[in-house]
Amino acid sequence: MLKKRLISLLLMVTIGSLCFSSEAYDKGFDYFSRNKPQDAIPYFLTALGEPGVSPSVYMYLGIAYYQVGDYAASVDIFKKGLDVSGTNKKMLAYNAGNSAYAMKDYKTAEQMFSLASTADPSFASPVLNRANSRLSLGEYESALADYKQYLVLDPASSQRREVESMIMALQNEIAYQEQEQERIAAEEERIRAENERLAAEKAEQERIEAERIAAERAAEEERIRAENERIAAEKAEQERLEAERIAAEKAAEEERRRKILEEVAASLQKTDSTGMNAGSEGVIDYEYGSELD
């Protein structure tokens, strides 16, 4: 259907092209009019290089490329024609949009259909095709606006029922997406709140655990300190007792030695007193005895 629409548009440019006739152009047009686009393309390409060729050659060549399935070349030729004086900018942009859409380049198609609509705001077809492009891009609200605008521009359209069905489907889809977005937002908020709660709970657990560990460490340090103090006190007491023992032993030893010395001294004294010497004349002995019976 799209191909028939493109061919029918040629009637709008054929009359204007008659005054720019060239041999290559005429041969190309002959093949083209007999639905032989593959044969027409080389002649149209030749005609592009000839001076004074009809500006409509861009239209025919672009459509010929479209007919043989070379959509990229079709878009390229239509775009080049937009920069040439005397070409039908509205139709070139519209056809470029159709070729871009056929190769699933929906963004370029949207741009070209917008250009065609800007050139002629009353032209309904590019509005419908732009709606289809935006639908393929997932731009549902923009597509919905275009479908509605299309029915305003062409209220008697043969596709009215299908367009109205699409409008209803899009409205339902947009409403569903809005509800889904609200649901997702609410879900994300719940998840965020739960994550915050879990994070706070984890932080509290970590704080309590840190306090417990600190308390245990402090208690252990206090136990160690007390144990060290006890050991130190016990050691000091042992050292004191040992010192006292050593001192006592030393004192006892000194006392024992003193007594020995005293005994020796006493023994010597007794010996001296019982053998008093009077000189060279002899020794006088004293005998002690009790006069009491």
TrEMBL record:
Q: Does the keyword Magnesium apply?
A: no
- Keyword terms: Coiled coil, Repeat, Signal, TPR repeat
**GO biological process: one example:** receptor-mediated virion attachment to host cell
Region feature Disordered, mapped onto this chain: 271-293
The coiled-coil regions, if any, are: 160-271
- In the UniProt record, the signal sequence range is 1-24
Spans of the TPR repeats? 55-88, 124-157
Show the stretches that span the lipid bilayer.
none
SMART domains to which the protein is assigned, alphabetical: TPR
Where does it sit, as one GO cellular component term?
A: cell outer membrane
InterPro entries the record matches: TPR-like_helical_dom_sf, TPR_rpt, Ycf3
Q: What is this protein called?
A: Tetratricopeptide repeat protein
